[in-house]
Amino acid sequence: MNWDAVGFVAETIGALGVILSLIYLAIQIRNQNRQARLDAINELTLQRNEYSGNLVDNGEFAEIWVRGINDYQGLNDVERVRVSSHLSRMVRVMESLHEHRQANQLKGESWEAYDRYIKEIFLYPGVQQWSETRSFFFAESFQAYVDQYIGVSQTESPNLYLESTRQSS
After folding, report:
1. Could you give the number of structural domains in the chain?
2. What's the distance, Cα to Cα, between the start and end of the chain in Å?
3. Is 59 a domain residue?
4. Which phi and psi angles does 162 have, rounded to 5°?
5. Is 120 exposed, middle or buried (0-12, 13-18, 19+ CB in 10 A)?
6. Is residue 89 part of a domain?
7. Is 115 domain-assigned?
8. Rounded to an integer, what distance in angstroms lies between the CA atom of residue 48 and that of residue 39?
9. CA 159 to CA 48: how far, in whole Å?
10. With the CA atoms of 53, 111, 126 and 78 taken in that order, what torsion angle do they form, in degrees rounded to the nearest 10?
């Protein structure tokens, strides 16, 4: 038997093993990254559901919320603190979603749904009043993103809570 041929075959098999290992590793890393993105989005969705649950579970706060998103300045000091805290939590989640979008980790229909939700919230005059005094707490890129919706507020009305349907009934 020719030892050179045996050596060549062994080197070829070794190189093939390294290549297959690298391909397997690349697939595993891609799957792990995909799962990490999904986990992050799921966590943000859970946070969104948690702050929405506050409105469902607390009728008194729901009433304050409705008044606050329509006229933040018209609330008393305690109500303003409550609405501001709720908005801060809400907007922090929105900012995180926006960051995921900028990183191309949130795409297509998923982003479009969140985008519509963010737009609706920032169309409310009370939310805009709150934003004037709190926007500096958020990233400049997110502020610029939100400002595009604040600018259209004169031509569009918010409809997150089906106000136009309720008014026409």
Report:
1. 1
2. 93
3. yes
4. 60, 40
5. middle
6. yes
7. yes
8. 14
9. 18
10. 40
pLDDT of residue 169: 38
**Assigned token pair, 124:** 């409310």
- Among residues 57, 75, 78, 77, the alpha carbon closest in space to that of 66 is found at 75
How far out from the chain centre does Cα 21 lie? 36
Q: Would you say 47 and 93 are in contact if contact means Cβ atoms under 8 Å apart?
A: yes
pLDDT tens by residue, the chain, 169 residues: 688 888 888 899 999 999 999 999 999 998 888 888 788 778 877 877 787 777 788 889 989 999 999 999 999 999 999 999 999 989 998 998 898 888 888 778 888 888 888 888 998 999 999 998 888 888 899 998 988 877 665 566 777 776 654 444 3
Q: In which domain, by residue range, is 73 found?
A: 37-168
Q: Give the number of residues written for the chain.
A: 169
pLDDT value of position 113 = 85
Q: Would you report the helix, strand and coil content of the chain in percent, each value rounded to 5?
A: 85, 0, 15
Interatomic CA distance for residues 86 and 63, integer angstroms? 13
User: What's the distance, CA 139 to chain centroid?
Assistant: 14
Residue type, 42: N
Q: How far apart are CA 27 and CA 69, in angstroms?
A: 47
Side-chain half-sphere exposure of 55, counting CA atoms within 13 A: 17
